Input
Amino acid sequence: MNADLYLGIMSGTSLDGIDIAACRFTGKHIDLLAFHSMEWQPALRERLIDIATADRIEMDLLVRAHFELARVYAAAVEATLREAGIHASDIRAIGLHGQTVRHLPSQPNPATFQLGSGAALAAVTGIDVVSDFRSADMALGGEGAPLVPMFDFHFLASDANERLIVNIGGIANVTWLPAHADAGDVIAFDSGPGNMLLDSIARRYFGKPFDENGEIGRSGEINEDLLAKFLSHPYFNTPPPKSTGRELFSELFLSDLHREIAAGKLLPEDALATLTELTALSIMRSLDLARRKTQDVEIIVSGGGALNKYLLERMKANASPHASICSSDAYGIPSKAKEAIAFAFFARAFVEEIRIHLPKTTGASRQTALGSLSRGK
Output
């Protein structure tokens, strides 16, 4: 039995698919044995969007979805193991993020909920599952997010260079790592929308799941007035720790934009150009919120947004001339697989009692173990 082999499962707010990584960790080295990405069935994806955005939802629908996702995740696990020639008994544990449908970090009663029963997944697969990574942090006054910065600190900190680690999924999050960083130096937070709003415009006006390479956005013009209105949202100037999701950056956030398009005052490609600039600017301005004025920062990008060439160009245009921007692939971490790899690592940390919680990044009152274990063996 390969007792050091772990699976990570990630399905993000953009609902672009389920990513699964099979990994082995040796010190700072990550051995990615397999990576599998499975698209959501369209009907299920639409149901999940409805659950995530509706003010009210039928309890039966919510509860059934919690268990249905466990079966869907189990099918994705089976496909990953089959493709890689790995047996379920070779996996020590699965790290399951689950599908976030509500994230309400504001006080006095913060709460979060991820669909996908860890216990049901463990029972179906016969593999131990570590899930529910956010609740303990929130119980201690934290935001419960972002979680990936804990992975960034362990695998991407540098003794020589200051780094801004950027993960662009549905929501974009950033991790500030000064040179020689220790746990108390890390600053991390959600900078704002990532792919979520871009994908929404691509689907609604162009019939595409996303703006491939940012080509549609590149063909448009940035509407400075609309951009300024978007940037006036209080979230962008709120100091960290902070986190966000569909609750803030939803279709309601885009209501003025849709009215402008309907009135013929804004072209859909201009909308994409403007929202791409919003994502790029909010990411780069995160350096100010991290209270760092460094000029020579290394910016390491991962997530689906790392494939949007136009977005990366706009990030570069808004960065210091001395800043460098590259994909996490250059550091041995495939950008598309990074979050799934991170949750494989979080499962390992829970099982082997490795201290990974960074309460300063979330605002929690103290460090604690993150996750809950469901036995499958």
Observations:
- The two ends are 13 Å apart (CA to CA).
